[in-house]
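User: I'm putting together a teaching handout on how multi-component assemblies are represented. Below are the sequence lines for each component of a complex, exactly as they appear in our records. Could you produce the 3D structure of the whole assembly as structure tokens, so the students can see both representations side by side? Please keep the chain order the same as the input.
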Amino acid sequence: MSVENRVVVTGLGIVCGIGDNVETCWNNAVAGVTGIADVKSVDTEKCYAHKGAEVDIPSEELSGENYDRSSLLCIKAAGEALKDAGFDTAENGGRRIGVILGSCVGGVASIDRYYSDKFRSGEGSFADGTGDKNDIYKMPAAAIANNVARHFGLNGETANIVNACAAGTMSIAYACQLIREGKADAFVAGGSDSFSSLAFSGFHALHALDANPCSPFNHSSGITLGEGSGVLIVESYEHAVRRGAKIYCDVLGSGVSSDAYHITAPRPDGQGQMSAITRAVKSSGLDFGDIDYINAHGTGTAKNDEAEFLSLHTLFDGNDHLSVSSTKSMTGHCLGAAGSIEAVFSVKAVQEDVVPPTIGYSDEDLTVLAEKAGDICFVPNRKQEKTVHYAVSNSFAFGGNNASIVFAKEPAELNIQKNTQPVYITGIGKVCADKEAAEKNVAINSADYKEHGIKMAFYRKLDHFSQLQLLSGVRALEDAGVTIDESNENTTGLIIGTADGPIKEIADFQKNAIENGTEKGSAFAFPNTVYNAAGGYLSIFSGLKGYSATVANSVQAGLQSICYARTIIRNGEADKMLAAGTDENTDIEQELYGALSVLGDGKPYSGSGIVLGEGSVTLMMETEDSVNKRQASVLAEVAGCATAHQATEADTIQGSETALEEVIRSACEDAGITPDRIDAVAGFADGNSVVDQTELNAYRKVFGRTMKVFSVKEDFGEARAASSALQAACAAEILGGRTPDVLDCYEVTADTVTRTQTEVGNFAYMLAVSFGLGGSYAAVVLKKKTV
Amino acid sequence: MNQEIAEKIKNMLVESLRIPAEELEYDSELFGDDIGLDSIDSIEIIAGIDELFGIDMTGQAKENFQSIETLAAYVEAHI
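Assistant: Of course. Below is the structure of the complete assembly, with chains in the same order as your input.
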């Protein structure tokens, strides 16, 4: 394999229901020791199921910070992995080591605590009580990667992939892609999720919990929830060799797909699963007959097990040495951490030549298994010793997301068709508040759906967050003139960025569990509490089956989604990508942001605080070939993309000024220009004095001249990820000639900021840049298309 | 059909399954083209009927779930 494509695993860390380190967990996994017991942290008294695989360590013993349990579990696992890798995290100020983590429920334990405090102190009324405002910053999944980065002083790219139960696998896959793209030397990659009353209540409502310990590929009568974190240090081979690191194995290809079928259930025909597995195996330069072990998704629900059983038998027919096991039979289903924990086990299987078993088979079960297993060995009850050259780990999720990744004893020549063509923006879909209205909310009514042929039977299922995203996604497809059909369904993908995700749906679900009991969860509402439900609905409605991810990373996530989408295109996984930013503004956001005392008049550069907004903005990005093939009209070229990070406290960007300067310079460099070629900026000022001053200082330092800055938040409020995506849309519309020739803007000089107007007709390059609390930045340079 | 029971069921469907009230008639086909409910919704209906009337419809035949009318008839017969 060419050295520049080689990514290796150099460190492992894990904490889950069967141990708090790799050695203990691995020994227990191969010995078939279960971590499943009666649940302690959630009141299950009135539930029909009581089992779970919890980590028997109090949060304060995991790490000293006042973070959410999901972050603390991950710090524990990442600490072990970094130590194992022998990493000098201080090298280059930690700039070349990033943190990409998956999570499903994020900070939901803190949401639980916040509202439980309110309910208790209000003597049965949420409205009358008070919660600890420190819990508010711990709520979003977006906090996890930044917390981990801050703990270890890592300052490469951070992201939280929030595609529910596929998140852990997707995070590792994405980290490897970024290394192959040269964006970092190494990543802390994996996933984390704490045990939560929300997940227990939700799966209970769906009748998806097994009353007994789960029994994957056996009784298949439901899942058992677990908690934990798995972390891999993935590193470029060159970097690992240079520092003399111990190498566990290679990470080869990966595959991510979307079912476009149902919001919770997998396609019964396994088509989406097979698409992800096939892409993983083929991009690894391998064939199905090469695979020795698959750590299955194997949740233990009838729907998953039947679909996965069918997928594996279909693809691996003729492979006479395939072993398949589900370690969830011991660790429980750790949701966003599942893929990362199972990745650790897959790496160990490759290293040790031992396959861990699926436990829980009785003698009678073994007879049934023998009849249905065919050539596949399901490794029942006892470990199997065999040479494992190639191991695959599968993760499938709510929203119809599928992910698969390959670990290998030896390097292989990857079969990746890298794409270096220019990438263009060819369509924009916007769902924004009314410019003139004081309250920055979006009212959606049935006429909005009917306009796009969306039926009531479909849209009634959507929560507000999903509604915003569906409409902007559909509008972007229409604006670009793209209809998804058999010819493009697998080569069109989707990245959604968000700061807070569907926080209203999550908080309301949690409040119901607190007020009425764990057993009273709503089966209807639960599927919408996962961050990637919105992407799932868009994919179901449009038929889009390609790469699909949702990334949670504060305000800048709407621009990070563009950077992420371009990485996927460059990696040859899609020729069209929708990149979006979405956040909502409901009673819950008003309550939470109000409690943080950050609200004000929203005036950029002179404001008393932010005005919350909401919306969704989706951009269609596509390769030059795709544009030419369908003779699409182009708004602008995505000429440069960059991210940067300087870890700060989770409630500020103070202390991360250098990362902002760096991200602007890097995006320009990526576009092949110097900053003096930038004609104007679509900026991120929102009325918060620290944010606005940081922005001004950076422009003054980087550009050193008068700069024209457009403000989208002045008109539409701080709609977080929707705003940052809107900044890119604003720049694309200006460069694409969709706006009037003269526009309002701010003129930023060395010591003044004044309202003015500017001619925009001659602009050639524009910058869109935004910040994330905790010190994350993304920047995109857009270039006018020259005919 | 007992109007009171039917109205309660209708309100429950509107509230917990976000079905627009103006599109929901007593004889609308719940799981067919009219309203388009699916298996997750049926779980919610069972929970709702249990909550409202203390009647467990778990495992009952599909025919009972056809419309508000059939649900109301089942409730009336088992109350």
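A couple of points students might notice: The mean pLDDT of chain B is 94. The two ends of chain B are 14 Å apart (CA to CA).
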